[in-house]
């Protein structure tokens, strides 16, 4: 085997390692959690991305592997040109598992964001190697006319376009354009590379790598087709029906109740992709991920009606109700993909502390329901469940008012505490800076639902909860970038044998936050200035 083949084997081994780590939950020693798995790399390096030191080590190993593969033992520049091409083609193979989580990706047990990040890093390196290869090869050519040369140039241009159209800025502001372009350009790139390679030996590298890529692409498309058909088309109930209603008092969020064509077994942590079959704004071409926030529990095993909580953003979600906020109800046919997403196993923890900001609440509520149901059947050991929820406006608390009431009534042993932190836009302006308890059903109950009319302070609240914890404690986050960083920093200081941290698949951002590198750096500098002011005894917020 030559070095590029060894590289292919090493890449496979790295993938297997990631799979094992994702599926076999072995708790690493506290030292590794504190210094490698939980802390992130410096914000000035990672920007808005959530890269832990462990992930940085994996990325670093991958980069080093590629440098070694393309440079070790080369004797001439043409060797280097050949190596970069081979390494690029090998790296392209796993990209065709798909960048978005799908049946195959979900089966692997890797989390949504980790899956997308692996795809992005492999893609970046494959494109860089392709560009280096083409530039050096083109520089050594005298004429530029053959089919191989022209298709090589086309392949490189396509790869460069894929890179430019996948930057964070484009993904954030033109997600649909990015997604559709990606879908079209990726197979075109492979076809151009195929035409570029003059060799007729199909079962030898590099053509065999392209054949593997084509086969993988075919398998992923076929599994997608089978999955969508199975999930959505049933003889008596073809397609799902989506009933969209505005939530009480708040126009920022709508509730989507999906009557599923084919019921399934619901677990907390599941999300689905759904697309509406309506021609308006070409919505039928778009499919978007949302957590299953609640469900009808008439049946024990499978569920045929689930509810999603959808926050309005600027695209697909902006006009789900045809009449805008004036209209209160709409019903449409929908196509569903999923469920995806792995469940956090919380049953063995004595204390479960859940944090959510904004729409992140949709991911946390199913866990509370699951724990309370398990507690009634004595299947979980939780003695204390605490939910922290920070919202921008007081009116947002009505998004899930009914679900919270249901949870409180399920909590017959009073193990649940809910703390809502309201940052501003108070309905009751005289409560600013104060704490208010929701009325209790009867005098014998403890106070379980508390409203804080001020922002959440991670250091104080997390420290306090870890101090009060009973038994093994898990802290789960579905919070915006800033809150996640703050809580993570406190957990890194306080982690011990009893404490675990989990960050869920989705990181809700406020409407104002841009998620860019600059805004991440600005947040970091602001938090630094705040810390310095605090240490000088000056508590003024900057
Ligand atoms: C695992 C997961 C679970 C989620 N659960 C919920 C939920 O329960 N409730 C909720 O309100 N939101 C949830 N979201 C976010 C939701 O998917 C996006 O807000 C929605 O897709 C935005 O659609 P839009 O066209 O209106 O977005 P735009 O206004 O065009 O963009 C807003 C943001 O959403 C991102 N985005 C747009 N389309 C997609 C897509 N197809 N996939 C991923 N990101 C996209 C963009 O990059 C941008 O950052 C979840 C996201 C993920 C990844």
Report the top-level CATH class of the largest domain.
Answer: Mainly Alpha
The ordered H/E elements are HHHHHHHHHHHEEEEEEEEHEHEEEHEHEH
Strand order of the largest sheet: 4-3-7-1-2-6-5
Structural class: alpha/beta
Which ligands appear in the coordinates? flavin-adenine dinucleotide
Main sheet: strands, sense, barrel: 7 strands, antiparallel
Name the helicity range: 40-55%
Domains (count): 3
| CA radius of gyration | 26 Å
**How large is the count of helical segments?**
16
- Oligomeric state of this protein: single chain
- Looking at the structure, the CATH topology of the largest domain is Four Helix Bundle (Hemerythrin (Met), subunit A)
Distance between the termini: 60 Å
Strand content: 15-25%
Structure explained in plain terms:
This protein has 542 residues and is of the alpha/beta class. It folds into three domains: 3-229, Four Helix Bundle (Hemerythrin (Met), subunit A); 240-340, Translation factors (Elongation Factor Tu (Ef-tu), domain 3), CATH 2.40.30; 351-511, Rossmann fold (3-Layer(aba) Sandwich), CATH 3.40.50.80. Helix content is 46%, strand content 18%. It contains 16 helices and 14 strands. The protein has helices at residues 3-23, 30-37, 43-46, 53-71, 77-95, 103-108, 112-139, 147-165, 168-173, 175-196, 207-232, 361-376, 401-410, 458-468, 481-494, 517-535; strands at residues 240-247, 250-264, 271-276, 288-291, 294-295, 303-311, 329-340, 351-357, 384-393, 416-424, 435-437, 449-452, 473-478, 499-503. The strands form two sheets. The protein has a seven-stranded antiparallel β-sheet. It has a seven-stranded mixed β-sheet with strand order 11-12-10-9-8-13-14, with helices on both faces. Helix 13 links the parallel strand 9 and strand 10. The chain binds flavin-adenine dinucleotide (FAD).
């Amino acid at each position: 085997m030559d070095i590029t083949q060894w590289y292919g084997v090493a890449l496979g081994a790295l993938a297997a390692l990631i799979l094992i780590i994702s599926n076999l939950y072995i708790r690493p020693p506290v030292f590794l959690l504190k210094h490698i798995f939980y802390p992130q790399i410096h914000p000035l390096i990672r920007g808005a991305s959530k890269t832990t030191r462990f992930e940085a080590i994996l990325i670093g190993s991958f980069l080093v592997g590629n440098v070694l593969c393309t440079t070790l033992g080369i004797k001439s520049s043409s060797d280097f040109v050949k190596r970069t091409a081979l390494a690029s083609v090998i790296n392209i193979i796993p990209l065709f598992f798909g960048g978005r989580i799908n049946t195959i990706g979900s089966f692997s047990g890797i989390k949504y964001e980790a899956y997308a990040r692996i795809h992005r890093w492999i893609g970046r390196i494959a494109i860089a190697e392709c560009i280096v290869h083409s530039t050096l090869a083109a520089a050594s050519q005298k004429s530029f006319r053959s089919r191989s040369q022209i298709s090589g140039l086309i392949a490189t241009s396509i790869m460069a376009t894929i890179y430019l159209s996948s930057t964070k800025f484009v993904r954030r502001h033109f997600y649909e354009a990015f997604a559709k372009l990606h879908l079209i350009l990726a197979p075109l790139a492979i076809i151009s590379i195929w035409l570029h390679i003059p060799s007729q030996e199909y079962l030898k590298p590099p053509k065999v790598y392209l054949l593997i890529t084509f086969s993988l692409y075919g398998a992923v498309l076929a599994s997608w087709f089978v999955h969508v058909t199975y999930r959505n088309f049933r003889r008596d109930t073809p397609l799902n029906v989506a009933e969209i209603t505005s939530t009480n008092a708040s126009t920022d969020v709508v509730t989507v109740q999906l009557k599923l064509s084919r019921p399934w077994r619901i677990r907390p942590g599941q999300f689905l992709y759904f697309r509406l079959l309506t021609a308006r704004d070409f919505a039928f071409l778009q499919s978007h991920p949302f957590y299953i926030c609640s469900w009808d529990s008439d049946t024990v095993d499978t569920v045929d009606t689930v509810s999603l909580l959808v926050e309005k953003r600027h695209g697909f979600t902006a006009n789900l109700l045809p009449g805008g906020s004036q209209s209160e109800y709409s019903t449409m046919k929908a196509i569903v993909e999923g469920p995806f997403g792995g469940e956090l196993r919380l049953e063995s923890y004595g204390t479960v502390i859940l944090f959510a900001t904004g729409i992140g609440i949709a991911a946390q509520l199913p866990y509370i329901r699951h724990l309370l149901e398990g507690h009634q059947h004595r299947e979980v050991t939780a003695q204390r469940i605490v939910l922290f929820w920070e919202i921008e406006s007081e009116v947002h608390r009505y998004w899930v008012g009914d679900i919270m009431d249901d949870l409180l009534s399920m909590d017959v042993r009073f193990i649940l505490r809910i703390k809502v932190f309201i940052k501003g836009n108070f309905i009751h302006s005289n409560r600013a800076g104060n704490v208010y308890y929701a009325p209790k059903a009867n005098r014998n109950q403890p106070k379980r639902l508390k409203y804080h009319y001020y922002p959440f302070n991670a250091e104080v609240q997390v420290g306090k909860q870890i101090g009060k914890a009973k038994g093994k404690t898990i802290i789960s986050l579905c919070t915006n970038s800033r809150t996640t960083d703050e809580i993570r920093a406190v957990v890194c200081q306080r982690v011990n044998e009893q404490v675990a941290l989990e960050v869920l698949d989705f990181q809700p951002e406020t409407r104002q936050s841009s998620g860019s590198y600059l805004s991440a750096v600005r947040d970091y500098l602001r938090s630094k200035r705040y810390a310095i002011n605090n240490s000088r005894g000056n508590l003024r917020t900057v």
